[in-house]
Amino acid sequence: MDEDAERQAEALRRQADSLRDRGAWPAAAAAYAAFLRLRPDDAGMQVQQAHCLKEAGQVAQALALYRSAARLRPEDADIPLQIGHAEKLRGEREAAREAYAQALALDPAAQAPWVEWLALVAHEPRRAASPAGGIVLDLTDLANWIHHGHRVPSGIQRVQLGVALAALAGPQPPRLCAMPPEADGWRDLPPALLHRLAHLMASGTETDAPAWQEAAGLLGTLLGQAPPLRFAPGAVLVALGGTWGMPGFLATLREARARDGLRHVPLLHDCVPLLLPEQCQESTVQGYARWFANLALHAEGVLTVSRSTRDDMRRLHAAMLPELPVPPAAVVRMDAAPRPLPPGRASEHPLLRSRTPFVLFVSTIEGRKDHRLVFSAWLALLRRLGARQVPLLVCVGQPGWRAEAALALLEQAPELRGKVHMLEDVADPLLAALYGRSLFTLYNSLHEGWGLPVTESLAHGRAVLAPGHSALLESGQGAAVFFAAGNEPDLVEKLTQLITDPAFRAEAEARAAAVRLRSWGAVAAQLLAEAERLALPAADGPPRLPLAAGCLHPLRRLAASRPSLAMAVAETVREGEGWYPLEDWGCWTRPGTAFLTLPLGTGHGGALRLELELEGAEVEQPVELQALRNGVPAGPPLSVIVPPRRRFPAGVDVPPGGEALQVEILCREPGQDAAGRPVGIGVRAFGFTRLEEPAERLALLEARHFVAATPLRET
Asked: How far, in Å, CA of 232 to CA of 175, rounded?
């Protein structure tokens, strides 16, 4: 633009601004239009003209200008905010909601788009979402974390946030969903809400803060009140966190797979509950074992966070579940640099103002992370080097399962207490500053699926000391300093080197700084691509549940620390929505009809004897049992009267037919269970035999009536 045109444009801008400030909207819009004829790509002036047109009542023309400006400034969060305002004026609530959501994606800390979006969403908490297709990220684990009162994310939650937020910023953003605690179906999770929650989780720690209460409360409302989400054909559900603590999750998954054709590819973070059950709560071990036992039958494939975790999964599955095929797996390493940080006041923390050197250890304080070994090594350092030479040990993390031994040592050693500083609920800005100010970092664990603090340390260019085992050899990226796992003398020697030998530490820092980590966008893109690949139908069809004749198959929640085929049978044969979750004694049907689906396989197409062990509710109940072969009734139904609160065996002779056997259980007189729920009939176990095989009938009879020193076959 020549000098005269520049002067003319500047004069038009001043004139337009003056008219705008006086509220002369049509004249101001005309002046801005004249300016834009000289400078057509000035996004700021396009926005100003749009403001004036909107005030003049020309909302459609204003929207066209706002959208043009958004194309020129795609990172400017104010422009989609203005688009939302304009769409709201037109009465286009859905378009306004989408625009405010886009503004929140660009600036999740902004209050104006959050207030506007919240008002539109809170007005319709029961609004049904459209069916979800393509890749759908399941953030149930993250939602449960928030539901249980947490705000600061743990390592697995950080992974979920990193993947989900990066995927949303990608070229084909996935849908998000989560399941409420009662596991009665997934609900749509709006990306705008995730952006807001992620910002608040990164920037603060107080769970009673109004902003956090508002966002977390909306999450609870949407999961509790919105209708269950349906899935479009071909949708792939990628569960980014653990779901084994939800008793009804697998049943709900089976329903969606049967009804919608949903495919499932979970992300596996580790196999610690099976490898080190003594380091986990018993309920966690048992829930994980039941989930793991059903993995091959409920997932097309498995994503793992490391080669080590993939190999653990394959080895454990082959050893513990030889009857089932090992699920296909793909490795998606979590070698991502931390997400950009929100602004914070990290510099105000005393540790950062002080010149006291410190070593950083980021981890939940629990038995598996063996803080006691680290504290004992620190005590040895104090006695070897003296307190003046030993830096402070800063432990970031909350006390968890079996932290007592480590905390007891800390309590019993006054000289150690003066050199260990414990921090809980640390927000991301402070955590990043601690990484950057640390002398080096230390990480300890008896086993890891990945080891995110090791990656974060490398991202900050800090030397990191870790045990040389499991996936830590991968997360260490060839740059970490490793000590022999569980070996306190070796740990003390490596600590001494890093503390007293600046050249050794500088060399380790140089290796850390040389590591090239990926972005979360790259990790998310690989994860989505691998999930789509694993979800393709297998050439030989889905795996089949091997179901043996002549065995008593319990239909209950089996409490064991090792996965077994019996766990898969108890879970998988219950088909449809007619069942409550498994309980320790057996399983209630819901009032009405429930189905057992028994894949008999080759050699079982002849006449069969089917036996069920029923459990009555508090009233006498008429029950009708109908066997179907390949979907066709096989003989007349059996009608029985089940006495109140009594076990009741029922046998059905099934004529020859197809190898797919289904049992319809119809309870015409509902009862109540101890919790007051309306229930149909209880089912404790089932079994079947071939009529021409007396040995199978005898084995089933003995299994039902005798307790043996050597346990009878039970699958």
From this structure: 12
